[in-house]
Amino acid sequence: KYRRRYSVAARIRMRLIALIGLIAVSFFLAPSRARAEIPPEFLGRPIASIEIEIDADASARRTLTPRELGVPIGAIFDRALLRDTIERLLDTGRWADIQLLYQPVDDGIGLIARLVPRRHVARIDIIGNKKLSDEEIQRTTLFFEDDDFDEARLAQLRGQILHQYQSLGYDDADVKIETRITDTPGAEVVRVLIEEKEPTRIATIIVEGDPLPPALRSKRVLGFKEGDTVDLAHIESSIKEAEIEARERGYLTAKFELARILRDPPKAAVYLKVRLGDRYDILIRGNGPITRDEILDALAPTDDPLSAAVLLAMEQRVIDRFHRSGYP
Question: Is the dihedral of CA 142, 148, 152, 154 positive or negative?
């Protein structure tokens, strides 16, 4: 049997799908290609039979009648019929892939419509999450109801959630993604099953570079300790606060960095790189409305020795700071 196919694959946004579909029809129906695409002897013959195939799980299939397809038995087969049918199906927004095939039969033309439903989220069920709320998970993954999805997107979703948990110290967390069909073809319930398990905890903190002076050690300047969960955001913010604390105590060029975290769940070793530099006693007087912290920021000391040129540059930066505040 002689079969021809009109097809449009639609796995991107529906607006673009419609555009691609029209281009595909126009291309196939261009005058220079028309006779090559539809043999002349087929044109003008009546539609004698219609088959509709919906590619979905059997329990999710719903019969699409020829009436809903918009092609009645007896309709005249021509290019306009194919074009209009594809446009009509695209306009529903329900189909991810549309194929129209035709073949000669005894009484005219047999039309076959092969349709793949657009897979989209009918509902999202997140189960087992305690450390993270549903809203926090969805805000990070940007996965919401009515979104289109495929297996690659579900794999990405799982990876995003695992990364969220790992950043909080839950290295052994497990995430499974399931889908359940509904009575509407393509509409599926996405179930996110989370098993958080026990978090990874800090077993040791190793300082590389300059050792912390007693004044900072006694103040527990780091903000985290052995036994705490390896919460990456908390560790990084605590290290930044420790750097600020050290500078306020006279270590004006102090630099604290997270060098690495060696994880061996349920334990981890946190390595810090610390550079303190020289300690200064700075007396600030007569600064008026300009705060001490603003003066320190303007001084911006470096590791360079305090030569006359360096001190002069620091002095000029403070003067410029006053000028910017309206003090000539």
Answer: positive
Mean pLDDT of 201-206: 94
Which is higher by pLDDT, 20 or 7? 7
- Condensed to tens digits (0 to 9), the pLDDT of residues 11-68 reads 333 333 333 333 233 333 333 333 336 788 889 999 999 888 887 554 444 556 777 7
What's the rounded Cα separation, in Å, for the pair 212 and 133?
A: 38
What is the SS3 assignment for the chain? Answer: CCCEEEEEECCCCHHHHHHHHHHHHHHHCCHHHHHHHCCHHHCCCEEEEEEEEECCCHHHCCCCCHHHHCCCCCCECCHHHHHHHHHHHHHHCCEEEEEEEEEEECCEEEEEEEEEECCEEEEEEEECCCCCCHHHHHHHHCCCCCCECCHHHHHHHHHHHHHHHHHCCCCCCEEEEEEEECCCCCEEEEEEEEECCCCCEEEEEEEEECCCCHHHHHCCCCCCCCCCECCHHHHHHHHHHHHHHHHHCCCCCCEEEEEEEEEECCEEEEEEEEECCCCCCCCCCCCCCCCHHHHHHHHCCCCCCCCHHHHHHHHHHHHHHHHHCCCC
Residue type, 62: R
* Long-range CB contacts (within 8 A, 24+) of 32-41: 34/79, 37/4, 38/4, 38/78, 38/79, 39/2
Kindly report the backbone phi and psi dihedral angles of residue 149, in degrees, each rounded to the nearest multiple of 5, phi listed first: -155, 160
Measured distance CA(44)–CA(109) in Å, rounded: 10
The 10 Å Cβ neighbour count of residue 187 is: 18
More confident residue, 8 or 328: 328
CA distance 140 to 158: 12
User: Greater confidence, 307 or 47?
Assistant: 47
What is the pTM assigned to this prediction?
Answer: 0.63
